[in-house]
Specification:
By secondary structure, the chain is mostly helical. The chain has one domain. The protein is built from nine helices and no strands. The radius of gyration is 20 Å and the shape is globular. About 5% of the residues have low confidence.
């Protein structure tokens, strides 16, 4: 049985795939702006929220650049095998960065990867170690790297989309904290620390992941033929058209 039992209507799927391309560009742009901020020491590019002063770390910016590029290369459609191999390599790197950083938080390791790109002084707001991204971003990149790797593999789209949903939920939780001033949702260094623009970029990343594989997995319910989920599923249509039992 295929990963999706629904017949996809390309009239609906095409604009959703375009959304994936737009999301990948937004993720790349978010990482590039923060990277520029670190390169030229521009505070507003490192932290969009002057009230909190929580910065997007250099490794986070690099991971967003890699994630956006991988999503662009791995998006469904006309990508060549060469693009797919490059996209999978970038996805693997994103996952390794996320898992390694998460391991540092969980087990107290110091793998000396936090300041490979730029140095940060001690005492930065909501930071456990100079240059280290917070646990939410690390977890998102670990899940996002896995999702990118599985995105277009046989029978794996639903698992990739589930990982993407988890990324989106973590980003939305942080954005809710920013919107309502609930610092516990975004400002605790050991648990929830994440910059505002990091959360925005990760939410776009989550949307892009799901939109990229909209023709498969549970996301295909959005672009199937017919009206409503039951109308799109062939077995459901047969059930509802069957005569009542006597």
């Amino acid at each position: 049985m295929s990963d999706s039992a629904l017949r996809v209507n390309d009239r609906y799927a095409a604009p959703v795939r375009a959304l994936s391309r737009g999301a990948s560009i937004l993720v790349i742009l978010g990482g590039a702006l923060a990277h520029t901020g670190w390169t030229f020491d521009i505070a507003i590019l490192k932290s969009f929220s002057d009230d909190t002063g929580i910065t997007m770390k250099a490794n986070t910016a690099a991971s967003l650049l890699l994630s956006g590029a991988s999503l662009w290369l791995l998006r469904g459609g006309r990508s060549t095998a060469r693009y797919h191999r490059a996209g999978e390599a970038l996805a693997l790197l994103v996952g390794v960065i996320g898992i390694a950083t998460l391991g540092q938080h969980l087990f107290g390791w110091n793998l000396h990867i936090d300041q490979l790109l730029f140095s940060e002084t001690s005492g930065a707001r909501a930071t456990t170690s100079p240059g280290r991204m917070g646990p939410p971003a690390a977890a998102c990149f670990a899940l996002g790297g896995m999702a990118l790797w599985l995105l277009h593999r046989a029978r794996s789209a639903s698992l990739a989309q589930l990982a993407a949903v988890c990324v989106g939920l973590m980003a939305l939780l942080a954005l809710t904290g920013y919107a309502y001033g609930a610092e516990s949702l975004y400002g605790i260094a050991r648990f929830t620390a994440i910059a505002l623009h990091t959360a925005i970029a990760l939410l776009a990343f989550s949307v892009g992941l799901i939109a990229s594989s909209v023709d498969r997995g549970f996301a295909s319910i959005m672009v199937g033929d017919g009206d409503g989920v039951c109308g799109r599923h062939p077995q459901a249509r047969a059930f509802y058209r069957a005569p009542p039992a006597r």
